[in-house]
Design goal:
Blueprint (H helix, E strand, L loop, with lengths): L15 E6 L5 E4 L11 H24 L3 E7 L9 H16 L5 H10 L8 E13 L2 E12 L5 H18 L11 E4 L1 H10 L3 H5 L13 H10 L7 H15 L5 E3 L3 H4 L8 H6 L6 E7 L1 H9 L3 H10 L1 H30 L1
Helix pairs in contact: 1-5, 2-4, 7-8, 12-13
């Protein structure tokens, strides 16, 4: 988010503003062009994920009112340092496709078990699947989290039985190694789904570098970026972290982070999905107020001195300090310009 966004109402370019959320106390920019990348832009990712989190919460609440059960499922595969992340992702996509159609479809498996008890209703209502990744000593670790909505009579043991068998077969049929018996498929009850949703997408969780650090001293994608900036991580030098992030960004470009099964939104009365670009183009919070409007010349100084993130931190704590900081930024630039002019005069002499 560096460039001014077009003003569709008045024409020209929108003014650059700093606003503060009345609800969360977070400062944010408005009037800048957003890339809409959920995988490679921490700013856009935070905004997109927060909107998705709200939808997940609404889905869980709607399911509860309808008397449905929510199950929290984690699917993983064995992985190593030498694995090609793009190859892994392609095979994972194939595996999830096999689990959704054909003889291996989990929906059919559930329905067969359900009908054997004399029930005639639908066993499963649908699912929401999230793709996540971390990097640790065993390389990239792509994995899925799934919230499955079922009829109230489907318990955790049944879900574990169906998904474990389906996941193992889908992985083997897709050229992936056999999932671990202990960790390949983990199923927990709805309370874990609620906990996951409450944390998923919160801005601090998405942007702070230590988020989702793995048990094996690994990094989230944003942790890799922070390692590049800080340069003091003994396990991830700036050069290594940069290389890993570039490989990750290439592999995940175009991947779908969150997928709702067909018909689930309608079944739970959740509004039609908006794409990432639409979400990032909207105001961050309608319950927000203006702190400052930054003239374009001043914004160029913010970019020049790489103060975009620092400016928001200051804005959240003290609006007077914000104005003073912007003023000092201009003074620093004037001083730098004078020094350059002085150096040029010395060289000419």
């Amino acid at each position: 988010m560096r460039f001014r966004a077009p003003d569709s109402i008045n024409g020209g370019l929108r003014p650059i503003e700093i606003l503060k959320s009345s609800e969360h106390g977070k400062a944010f920019y408005q009037g800048l062009y957003a890339c809409g990348s959920v995988w490679t832009c921490p700013v856009c990712a935070a905004k997109i994920a927060e909107r998705r989190r709200i939808e997940l919460k609404e889905a869980l609440e709607s399911a509860k009112k309808k008397g449905l059960k929510a199950h929290f499922i984690t699917l993983t595969i064995p992985h190593g340092v030498g694995d090609d992340i793009e190859d892994l992702l392609a095979k994972l996509r194939l595996a999830t496709k096999k689990m959704s159609s054909g003889r291996n479809a989990v929906k059919s498996r559930f329905q067969s078990i359900f009908e054997s008890t004399g029930e005639s209703e639908a066993a499963t209502i649908g699912f929401i699947r999230a793709l996540e990744v971390t990097h640790g000593k065993n390389g990239y670790h792509p994995h899925y989290h799934i919230i499955l909505f079922t009829n109230d009579s489907i318990n955790t043991s049944i879900v574990q039985y169906v998904y474990s068998k389906a996941w193992k077969k889908a992985c083997l049929d897709s050229g992936l190694p056999s999932p671990s018996e202990d960790h390949g498929c983990l199923v927990k009850d709805g309370s874990y789904a609620s906990d996951y949703i409450s944390k998923w997408g919160i801005e601090d969780e998405m942007t702070k570098a230590n988020t989702k650090i793995t048990k094996l001293k690994g990094k989230s994608p944003w942790g890799l970026l922070d390692a590049v900036l800080q340069g003091n991580d003994p396990d991830y030098s700036p050069e290594r972290a940069k290389s890993l992030f570039l490989v990750y960004s290439k592999a995940f470009s175009g991947q779908r982070q969150l997928y709702w099964s067909n018909g689930l939104r309608a079944a739970l009365h959740i509004s039609k999905e908006e794409n990432d670009e639409v979400i990032v183009s909207k105001p961050d919070d309608v319950r927000s107020y203006l702190l400052a409007q930054i003239p374009f010349e001043q914004w160029k100084l913010v970019l020049k001195f790489k103060q975009e993130a620092n400016l928001l931190s200051i804005a959240e704590s003290n609006v007077v300090a914000l104005q003073l900081f912007l003023k000092n930024l201009s003074l620093s630039n004037d001083e730098e310009s004078r020094k350059l002019s002085s150096d040029e005069e010395v060289l000419r002499e």
